[in-house]
Design a protein that fits this description.
Helices cover about 30% and strands about 25% of the residues. The protein contains 17 helices and 24 strands.
């Protein structure tokens, strides 16, 4: 099998349909499935002509544009492995990743090639490529006049390597095989209700691959995707007016930004959001802004995407009361392609191996909070060289289960509720996310964060904390002592701008002496 064969099949059936649209230098651009298929096959031959072979690893540093997917799919076609690292992670992190898996070649934008001067691990890469023009010690990307068939791959052939920080900060390398990516596409296709021929405005790069496989046109949002919380709503509205996407798949921070525009979000008929906590009040505001639209929340992770999903209309008044009472954040029912159980929270302690019967006996009953553990064809069975497996994988018989590190519970109807990160558990058994979700109901709806810092500390975003807000916060904790402090801004994660960056928050509290 070779994952890219799906693209070529789409190209044969709908060669003139737009595959990807983007906007560069003030100009809209697009490429059809037929054009992309040809360029991918010719690009694969170009790589082979420069001495690269199936199994080689190529590091990609390029903005999310048509060219990125052309090169990425060319690598898949050639049986090579693409390696992606977030450039904002810093030189030390990038260097560590490249020492973990030394790339055989490098493809990057002109700006990205400057990293080769800063990072020692990149200087020894023998073959370097760039999109076009002249650059020292690098070859411009070009298409071979010949285009061959996809290189046959085993189901376990690595296709994509990405890196994520572990609990110690050391990079963990997620290796996605051709079989894994195909299984992920199948699961996402059902959860995102992908329909061939539709147009989808996207800010999350991984979903472009699923769209390509499903025959959906991806419109890459005209904004800096590195900071979705600062999206240019005017540019997005203008782009949607020109290109008419009916769907949008994006992070919560992106939708928050669109809602702040005086004219609201573009007239989407379907919205899908995830990658960070999705609070009911955001879903309700989206539904009010776009009456009749399907507004969906997706829960997943790098290692398992998707895990669960739901549509806003499925939330009852009772569900909203549960959120207000601090009983968790709704995440919907687990998708059909995944097995999910809740284990007692033993974060930081290796578990297993187990016999199937013994493992199932550990599962907590509905209503009890513990760690969310999943298994399935689209669940990552392990990391590169096993680094990170001991604390995140459980061997049950001959099957691997993944520990998400998220605390959650199942209700009597089998729906999943999120409570926060297991590592962030506080004295008294409190989990930050469940309390933060409840505090969204505070007067004025200020952003809050719950953190272990000199006891239990609730951080409120703003200059002051009114008495009615502090009283409401303390009432959530009963007799448990709690500190309440305010900061002008609560630090959020770099990737989605929608999850509290707890380590950065602790550093900020230390720095300010709070």
């Amino acid at each position: 099998m070779n994952l890219v064969s799906i693209l070529h099949e789409r190209a044969r059936s709908h060669p003139d349909q737009i595959a990807i649209s983007d906007r560069v230098g003030g100009e809209d651009r697009s490429i059809t499935f037929g054009e992309l298929s040809h360029r991918v096959a010719a690009g694969a031959r170009f790589l082979a002509g420069h001495g690269l072979q199936p199994g080689d690893t190529v590091l990609l540093f390029h903005p999310v544009r048509i060219e990125l997917y052309e090169v990425l799919l060319s690598l898949f076609h050639a049986g090579m492995t693409a390696m992606l690292i977030d450039p904002s992670a810093g030189a030390e992190f990038i260097g560590h990743c490249c020492r973990r898996r030394a790339p055989d070649a490098y493809f990057g934008s002109r700006l990205a090639h400057l990293l080769r001067l800063r990072i020692r691990a990149l200087r020894g890469v023998g073959r370097c490529f760039h999109p076009a023009g002249w650059m020292p010690f690098s070859t411009p990307w070009s298409l071979s006049r010949e285009a061959g068939k996809p290189v046959p791959c085993n189901p376990g052939t690595p296709a994509l390597i990405t890196f994520t920080s572990g609990s110690t900060g050391a990079p963990k390398a997620a290796v996605r095989t051709h079989q894994f990516l195909h299984a992920q596409y199948e699961a996402l296709s059902r959860s995102l209700h992908l329909v061939e021929g539709e147009r989808d405005l996207v800010t999350l790069p991984v979903f472009v691959l699923a769209n390509l496989a499903a025959g959906v046109t991806s419109v890459i949002a005209d904004t800096d995707l590195r900071v979705p919380g600062q999206a240019d709503a005017d540019a997005i509205r203008s782009q949607c007016h020109r290109l008419g996407p009916a769907r949008c798949t994006a992070s919560p921070a992106f939708f928050e930004r669109l809602l702040k525009h005086p004219d609201g979000p573009p007239p989407f008929t379907s919205l899908y959001t995830g990658g960070a906590p999705v609070f009911p009040d955001l879903l309700d505001r989206l539904l009010r802004a776009l009456p009749g639209a399907g507004v969906h929340a997706i829960y997943g992770s790098t290692e398992a995407e998707p895990i669960s999903e739901f549509e806003t209309t499925e939330l009852s008044e009772g569900d909203r009361i549960r959120v207000t009472n601090g009983e968790g954040l709704p995440a919907g029912r687990p998708v059909d392609a995944i097995d999910l159980i809740i284990l007692p929270d033993q974060f930081g302690q290796p578990l297993g191996p187990f016999a199937e019967e013994d493992f199932r006996a550990l599962a907590l009953p509905p209503g009890k909070v513990g760690e969310i553990v999943v298994a399935g064809e689209h669940v990552l069975p392990g990391y590169l060289d096993g680094v990170g497996d001991q604390e995140t994988k459980i061997m049950v018989g001959d099957r691997v289960w993944h520990r998400t590190g998220d605390a959650g519970s199942l209700d009597p109807d089998g729906r999943l509720w999120l409570h926060g990160r297991c590592a962030a558990r506080l004295p008294g058994g409190f989990y930050p996310l469940a309390i933060e979700a409840a505090l969204r109901d505070l007067p004025g709806h200020p952003r809050t964060a719950l953190v272990a810092h000199r006891g239990i500390t609730v951080v409120v975003e703003g200059q002051t904390v009114p008495r009615e807000i502090s009283d409401s916060i303390r009432s959530r904790f009963g007799s448990t002592p709690v500190r309440i402090v305010c900061l002008p801004e609560i630090p959020m994660d770099r990737r989605h701008n929608a999850k509290v960056d707890y380590p950065a928050l602790r550093r900020q509290l230390d720095k300010t002496g709070l």
